[in-house]
Amino acid sequence: MHLANQGLFIQIATTLWALSIKPSGHVPSKMDFVDAGVTVKPAPFECTFVERSSDTTLGRQLLAGGAEGR
User: What residue range is the signal peptide (predicted)?
Assistant: First the structure.
């Protein structure tokens, strides 16, 4: 359990470090949500991932579908 949480944290932190997440299109308001009965989640929205720096190989690997060499 702890190993899975640590791995997930590392992956999310790496993605946020290497890429900028920008909205592409309609940005839902805070009141837009999907009520599925017991759970409530944000409404779906479109976004784009852009490299923060052009000299990072990791950013290009993440945009291409993952870093297989890691």
Answer: 1-18
